[in-house]
Amino acid sequence: MGVSGVGKSTIGNLLSKKLNIPFFDGDDFHPEENVLKMSKGKALNDSDRLGWLKVLNNLAIEKLKETGCVIVCSALKQSYRNILSTNINQSVKWVYLSGSFEIIEERINNREGHFMSSALLKSQFDILEEPKNAIKIDINLTPNEIIKVIEKELLNKSEFGLFGLGVMGKSLTRNLANNKVRLSIFNRHVDGVEEDVAKNFKNQFEELSKALPFDSIEPFVKSLEKPRKIMLMVNAGKIVDLVIEDLLPFLDAGDILIDGGNSNYNKTKERFDYLKSKNIHFLGAGVSGGEEGALKGPSIMPGGEKDAYKEVKPFLEAIAAKDVNNLPCCTHIGSDGSGHFVKMVHNGIEYVEMQLLVEVFVMLKSLGNNPDEIANILESWKESTNSYLLEITIDILRKKEGDDWLVNKIMDKAGNKGTGNWTTITTAQLGVPSTMIASALFTRYISFYKEERIHLSKSFEKDETLNLNIENTDILKAYQFARIINHYQGFKLIYEASVNYKWDLNLSELSRIWTNGCIIKSDLMLELVTVFKTTNNILTDKGIIEKLKTLKPSVKKVVSECILNELPIPNFSESINFFNGFKVANSSANLIQAQRDYFGAHTYQRIDDTSNKFYHTNWKK
Ligand code: 6PG
Fold it and tell me: Between β-strands 229-232 and 160-163, what pairing exists: parallel, antiparallel or unpaired?
């Protein structure tokens, strides 16, 4: 691209021969009336150009289906370039031939037979908007020198940068490479701790043979074509800000940073705003699926500007897991921190799903089953209630070490990296009763006080006369009940946040990208994709309500029996307690209001007054 006289056709022809792809001179596609207008010395206006630009865009789309092509045209305004790039934005590479008015004017005046007089040149300079994401080349270079620069910029540049080669970073890198993405990969250098990480990693895997390894930031950034796309896979927290500051001096306007860690959505919003002020796009992308998922296909939850997502969409959707319709489990979630928000809640749902399986294990063990026998029972549940977490739990229970099961040798103190904590804090801040997520988190905290539990156990000997009068099928039905409540609460939190932050999230699309690749993928999640097409609240769906009616007797029986036998099943009991409270039209919160008004004069509303008026009573009179 560039004003007339910069030598577009000469360079375009040379480049097409070099790349062995067809060449088209955009001027050959002007309609007659445009050529006539220009030959009379009249400047074309936007509407004259619109049809012409669309013809060139269609030509590019067609050729892109084969080998691609070189098209030269002025493309002076960003709006023209947007039309020319329609639907092929991530495949268009702009080369901007730039020169001074004087040099170009002299060139035009020395040319024969062109229908553009130099007088028109000024009108072109007047509307020229320099492109942000182009290979800019000074026309003082010779044509061959220009071709060399273009070739170096175009062909040797990487399409995508991966920053941080930890467990997830390495898996995502290999996934990207397996999807033929031209990659630059970076890992910091720390004497004696992290040395030549990128180089050694590249040499470990055949699929990385073309990847460019770096341990220095500037060359890593310079190795990327513009707009640069860099995915940060570093630990959540301060390090993300430090890495951003390290990268900023080398970035250009329009570049895109993707934070693929489990960052806090509030921090993501801050970073989004901070980088926006520096004309850098920032996408906070939840990535779920662990090490194997990241390698074979994770679920990816990018949030941020839609235009920025469009630039990285081909790469993220290529590496994402695929749903039952072979669609990528990756979608633009919403603006600013929404991607990391939904990932946080994903982890909250995950905590509960894991805790429910733990409580199933407690019950089945109390019924006298060993881990293998429990695994066999869970195996039989796959038909009706499958999930990734059920499958891995079966594998875990079958794992032996010598004559014993490995699970029996693991210290019973559950850790966490903070996402369940954030979800619980957030749900409290938003006033949403995600009681099961909170319960699952606090149950992990209970497990952590191992010494106190040992001490207390000495004062309360375990009652060996267990009489757990429940069947395996009761447990399965109770498990199904509790999972529905868990998913209701998780998506309710997401919905309320979407309203609160004006994200306008699509719960059906969100549950769709959670049907594969992520830790909470399950048959139930697949069912919710359809449910969320007609409601944002699954407890209004007739099919879900019928299920709950069928399952409720079992959860009541299972929870009652477990409590009578002193078995800890906090998440199962929370599921029915929450439900019992939520299905009551007239609750007992009126007494809370009375108590608050009694000691704090906090006032209350009346059911016989619809005016929303608040009352206070002097209760002592
Ligand atoms: C995922 C997982 C992952 C999670 C850790 C465990 O979606 O792949 O949720 O992101 O952070 O695997 O998290 P905790 O340490 O909080 O249990």
Answer: parallel
